[in-house]
Amino acid sequence: MFERLERSEVVLIAVVSFFALTGVAGMVLFESPRPVEFIEPPIAIPLTGDPLDATAWFQSVRQFCNPVEVETRMNWQPAPTTPDGDMYKAACYALAGRIDRAHAVIQGLPEEMQYQAAGVVFEAGHPAADAGDDIAAGPLMELVVDYWPNHYMALYHAGAARFELGDHDVAEGYLERFLVEYSADDGWTGSARSMLERIGER
């Protein structure tokens, strides 16, 4: 049947169909009995990749891992319900200074995975410590040491933080353990020895 239609007839049918559709759309848009109420949802950063990917989740929430926003963000955008998700959840809490919450999350993991979680926490907080803010990173580093006792860089930063705070007895313990675990003769060991010497002088 369509093969027998002339070109002009086909065009006419298309035009009539277009106006019919737009007419119906106009009725819907302009004759609605009441305005549609729009409720703005909370701001959320979409995940990149697989929603079960804990690394992608952490990248999307990291900027909210601070004391003010962390709990709200955890409610709006919870971590994946996987062991990896819990590891990054603990890292987010640790960055926010919620060390007790981070401990609780790690304690919920199988014992053989807890040191892995400590490693994830360390990687999250290490940049701040390397930038020189040992005091801010100190509680996070002590959390790492609790589950990975011979993590030499966490031992160093935990010791440096305690030294800066004047907690010399605790600092001495961390720094001496660092020198046992780390044998390279470089700036890290030199700094640790210097702090220990100053503790001894006092």
The SSE string, one letter per element, is: HHHHHHHHHH
* Approximate strand percentage: under 5%
Classify the secondary structure makeup into a structural class: mainly alpha
Please tell me how large the radius of gyration is.
Answer: 29 Å
- Residue stretches low in confidence (pLDDT < 50, at least 5 long) are 1-49
What's the mean pLDDT score?
A: 80
- Record field, number of beta strands: 0
How far the N terminus sits from the C terminus, by CA atoms, comes to 103 Å
Estimate the global geometry from the Cα principal axes. Answer: elongated
- Count of spatially separate domains: 2
- What summary fits the major beta sheet? none
**How many helix segments?**
10
The percent range for helix content is 55-70%
Task: Report on the architecture of this protein.
The model is unreliable at 1-49 (pLDDT under 50). The protein has 202 residues and is mainly alpha-helical. Helix 8 (152-165) runs parallel beside helix 10 (187-201) and helix 9 (168-181) runs antiparallel to helix 10 (187-201). The protein is elongated and about 50 Å long. 68% of the residues lie in helices and 0% in strands. 30% of the residues are buried. The protein has 2 domains: 51-140; 149-202, no CATH class.
Task: Supply the key terms.
mainly alpha; 202 residues; 10 helices; elongated; disordered N terminus; 2 domains
Please summarize what this structure is.
This protein is mainly alpha-helical and 202 residues long. The protein has helices at residues 7-30, 54-61, 70-76, 83-95, 99-107, 111-130, 134-147, 152-165, 168-181, 187-201. It is elongated.
